[in-house]
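Quick start: what a row looks like.
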Amino acid sequence: MIDSRLVVKVAMRRYTYFGILKTTFQEIAKVLDVLPGQVYQCYPFKDLLTIAVMERLLQKYYRQVVNAFDTSKNFRENLLLVLKARYSFVKTHYRIYLTLESSMEQENYHKLEEVYSLVRNRILDHPKCYLLVSKTDDVVTPAVLNEFITVLDEELFNCFRVFQRKLLLNQRQLNSIFDQQYKISEEFLAKMNQ
């Protein structure tokens, strides 16, 4: 039996470079030098594989976010560090974001949202995150940070919905998405300081 972690690793790489819709189990099997049936034994449906890939990616992303936190800096400075980590991550994996919603059946997309919430909450419960929000001069709580990240993510997916039909983004379009994220962050900080 093939290791399911290997299947996820190969799928993640192919999703990143070609998008979810253009990746098949046959291609994954070819890279792993196994029969397609062995891939299906690990993940009987592509949506299950996509959820596993996204869970791994989200864990990687939120680790990057936590590592970006610098408890010697204030919340505003940390927010900019987190945005940089976010931009770097989205630039690398934008084809996944671009094809995610259209590649999954609706009930499985809801399962993915549950996985996303669980992973995010684990990170927001991280001691480094608590230390950041408790020592800052700004009035921030983990709940506020959670709400802010939710707003950023909703906006990110809305932007990708706009570009979804083309299945490709040029650098200018990608930068406009990041500019929008930065604007939301500035508005969030301005509200916090009132």
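That is the whole record. The chain is about 80% helix and 0% strand. The radius of gyration is 18 Å.
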